[in-house]
Amino acid sequence: MFLLSATRAIVAFGPKRLANGRIIAGVEISPAVHAVKMLGADAFLLTEERLTLIDAGMVGSRRRIERYVTRVGRSIDELDRIVCTHGHPDHIGGVAELTRDGVEVMMHPADLDGLRLGIRDVMASRSRGHLIQYLTRPPTRATPLHDGQILPLLGGLEVIHTPGHTPGSVCLYAARDRLLFTGDVLQVIRGNLTFASALFSHDMAEARASVERLAALDIETIAFSHYPPWRHDPGGALRDLVARAAG
Q1: ∠97-27-224 over CA atoms, to 5°?
Q2: CA 44, 75, 20: angle at the middle one, nearest 5?
Q3: Strand order in 33-37's β-sheet?
Q4: Taking a C-beta distance cutoff of 8 angstroms, is the pair 141, 128 a contact?
Q5: For the chain, how many structural domains are there in total?
Q6: Which tops the pLDDT comparison, 79 or 15?
Q7: Which of 167, 179, 185, 246 is most buried, with most CB under 10 Å away?
Q8: What is the largest CA-CA distance in the chain?
């Protein structure tokens, strides 16, 4: 019964998110940073000397990114790496079809480990989060991301390990542009910034604690995977969120 109900929840999750369309195809949200509407979630295309993709949407998303890359005058052959914020199918499902020619995939080791769980481990944990990972196709190879690592992107893109939604969830912070990519660590409900979805998260106490690290950053724009960018006093909104959790 647990397996059946959790599977139904995942199926319900997909269409709801797909119907929640905010970006028709893609838009530049910051210099050289494009939010691109993939299947299931928005990905972020970094159009520097070479191309980088943050997340890859669900299976079947390759044509969407190819069309957008062509529209901005680039080629998909310029794609060097895909940085995954976490290991859910709407973020890494499209990885396999985009990495046929040696594109580097980067992900936190904690989510790589979760993607290799067997069904007995999933049933023993009775965790919807573990079931989602079990049903997600893992990348054939991946370079591990580590907390505090600086990627050579956007003047220095810092990896911030923010576990809770998944054990290996990361946010990516570009200090130069005051831009924060949050994956699913944050969401927007009825116009309010809030924590990750409790329904699809592994550990909500850990998820809330992770947000405290973000509140100390100097941020002008928060880039979400399922919502429009947040530009109205993001630092204040994050501090209010942390204060509400502490109260």
Answers
A1: 75
A2: 30
A3: 26-30, 33-37, 42-47, 51-54, 79-83, 104-107, 143-144
A4: no
A5: 1
A6: 79
A7: 185
A8: 51
Q: Is 0.70 surpassed by the pTM of this model?
A: yes
Residue 110, both tokens? 């904690």
CB 217 within 8 A of CB 180: yes
Alpha helices in the chain (DSSP H): 2-19, 62-71, 89-92, 95-98, 109-114, 119-125, 128-134, 204-215, 234-246
CA 178 from centroid of its chain's CA atoms: 18
> What pLDDT, on the 0 to 100 scale, is given for residue 192?
93
DSSP label of 94: T
Closest CA to 183 of 204, 197, 202: 197
Structural domain span for residue 52: 2-246
- Bridge partners, 34 (sequence order): 28, 45
Q: Are residues 244 and 236 in contact, defined by beta-carbon separation less than 8 angstroms?
A: no
Residue with the bigger pLDDT between 71 and 131: it is: 71
**Dist CA 164 CA 24 (whole Å):** 30
What CATH number does the domain containing 153 carry? 3.60.15.10
Give the other-Cβ count within 10 Å of 244's Cβ.
Answer: 12
Q: What is the pLDDT of residues 150-181, one digit of tens each?
A: 999 999 999 999 999 999 999 999 999 999 99
Question: Which of 92-101, 174-183, 215-224, 236-245 has the lowest average pLDDT?
Answer: 92-101
CA distance 191 to 19: 18
Contact 117, 92 (CB under 8 A): no
Give yes or no for residue 97 having a pLDDT over 50: yes
